[in-house]
Amino acid sequence: MHDRSYFEKMNPIQSILEQFDFPVYLAPMEEVTDPPFRHICKEFGADILISEFISSDALSREVEKSIKKMHFEEGERPFGIQIFGHDEDSLIAAAKIAESASPDFIDINWGCPVRKVVTKGAGSAILKDIPKMARLTKAVVDAVKLPVTVKTRLGWEESDKPIVEAAEMLQDVGISAITIHGRTRAQMYGGKADWTLIGQVKNNPRMTIPVIGNGDIDSAEKAVECRQRYGVDAIMVGRAAIGNPWIFKQIKDFLQGKEPALPNYDERVKVCLRHLKLEMVWKGERSGILEMRKHYANYFKGIPHFKEKKIRLMSAMSYEECQNILINS
Ligand SMILES: Cc1cc2nc3c(=O)[nH]c(=O)nc-3n(C[C@H](O)[C@H](O)[C@H](O)COP(=O)(O)O)c2cc1C
Asked: Average pLDDT of the chain?
């Protein structure tokens, strides 16, 4: 019989996390965490990155858009490709295709609350059938050599939060780490994330795999508090990083006893324009410009009198025009 430290030493995700003093993931976010945005977050200190979620159905049919979503740069490592689905064969096929792109791990999304995903039985819908969740996860674990991780929620609704038992079952079928978003599906993104159950999973003596906590981390102080209070092995930041990649540096600085510095207007302009440029390369000029429209409000949150510039940015159609609005007017 092996003790806990044996399994911890053998765990490939544990080895990845050990490279960092305070491992912080950038959360996978559809239509947000594309390569340009991930590149910028990595520069500001995000340690571990994951692709946007990719439909296993589409990936197994080699749909071009899904193949493109797997793209990552070497500098993004440690990097995970996230897949979602409900059908065993396509999950297996997608996991194998994802493996051929050589990420560091494959993440299964069992947490997405969006209607078009859950009505098919994928994402958080699986939380209504934990044995099925374990069976499909095992099929993926058995199909690939790479470590497989799971990202999920507490449960389907307030009266049904099986995460402690689910985490044990997932560990037993061989996943290497679990990320828990402290909400139920019914909450979608509303209400407050409940970290107490995340803490219960982490402190369950049966658990040996890393537990990554996620939900509502929006400041360096909160990141450190959540890690310390609930003992999680890493934390994951999602919405608070949108238009605010500085949060990763702020977390690192705070941990070293430095006051987390806020970026001034010039710094925000510089990073935002670089993001715009990268999007224009990644998506093409027009799509890159349109893509950035959803980021401006976040990049310049709290900047007085920004509204007028934002309105103009919403109709700007070239890099120079955006630059002009942000710098010269
Ligand atoms: C726009 C958006 C897209 C998201 N897309 C994904 C996704 O593709 N895969 C996933 O596992 N979670 C996805 N999520 C959930 C986040 O990864 C994260 O779990 C959630 O936002 C809670 O963390 P936060 O409070 O730090 O934002 C998405 C969230 C948002 C807001």
From this structure: 96
